[in-house]
Amino acid sequence: MIVIVDERKLVTEGYNSLFDREGVASAGFASGEFDEWVESAADEDVKSVRAFLIGDCGEDAVSPRKIRGRTWAPVIALSEHHSLENTLRLFESGVDDVIRKPVHIREILARISAISRRAQEETSFTEIGAMRIFLDGRDPEIEGQSLPLPRRERRILEYLASNRGRRVTKTQVFNAIYGIFDEEVEENVVESHISKLRKKLREKLGFDPIDSKRFLGYRLVG
Q1: Which domains does the chain have, with CATH numbers?
Q2: Nearest-CA neighbor of 217 among 173, 185, 186?
Q3: Of 13, 102, 110, 117, which is least packed with CB atoms within 10 Å of its CB?
Q4: What angle do CA 65, 162, 215 make, to 5 degrees?
Q5: How far apart are CA 47 and CA 38, in angstroms?
C-alpha cells in the first residue's frame, strides 16, 4: 500500500484512482490525520505501507523523521515548486527523493522500487527453487518460462517472496494488497486469491509452494 499525504482531497483522491489503475492499493490523508495515524497505528499497519508520498502540506507539517521512527519505507516529496532552494529544503527534512510534478504514476512506482532496492541491497527479483519472482511488476518465471498472473495474485506472490523465511498473516497480505482502509472488500478475498495462485503454481511446479498454517499464516517455500 502507498500512502499519500496532501491537504487537498481532490489530489489524494486523484492519486488513489491512478494507483488503483496500476493495481496498487493506496490511502490518502490530510497532514493532521496522518500525524495522528503515524503515532497511533499498529506496527502491522505501518509496515504494510510500501511508500509515503508527501504533497502540499505546509512547511514542517509532516516529519519524514517521525515516519522513519516507525518504518524504513521510502518517503518521497511531490514538489510543485521547482526551485533549488525548495528541493534542498525537502532533502534536509529527511525525504529519500524529490519528484517534480507533473509526473506519471509509473515513474513514481519505478522510483519507489529503486529506493527500496538500494536500501535493502536487493536485486529486482528473488529466486526460490525453480521460481524467479520479480519485484517490479513483471510476471514470475518458472524454470525460465513466464507465468502470466492477474495483478492481485502477482502482488501476493511478490509480497510472500519479499517476506521469504517469515510467515505473514491473512491480514498482512490483505493490507499490503488492498490497503488498510479499504472497507468495500472483505478480508476473506485473500483466501480466494491464494487458492487460485496455489493451483497455478502447483500445476507448473508439481507441488504447492505456499505453506499455510491456521492462525499463523502463509510462507513461501522452495
Answers
A1: 2-120 (3.40.50.2300), 125-220 (1.10.10.10)
A2: 173
A3: 102
A4: 100
A5: 11
User: What DSSP state is assigned to residue 43?
Assistant: H
- Residue 98: closest CA among 111, 109, 113: 111
Amino acid present at 221: V
- Spatial distance between the Cα atoms of 178 and 183, rounded to a whole number of angstroms: 10
Angle between helices 105-120 and 9-21 (to 10 degrees): 80
Q: Is the peptide bond before 148 cis (omega within 30 degrees of 0)?
A: no
3-state secondary structure of 60: coil
Question: Hey, is 132 helix, strand or coil?
Answer: strand
pLDDT at 68 over 90: no
**Which pTM was predicted?**
0.62
Residue 122 has pLDDT above 60, yes or no: no
Q: Are 193 and 156 in contact (CB under 8 A)?
A: yes
pLDDT of 190 reads 92
**What is the residue whose three cell numbers read 479499504?**
182
The DSSP 8-state label assigned to residue 15 in this structure reads H
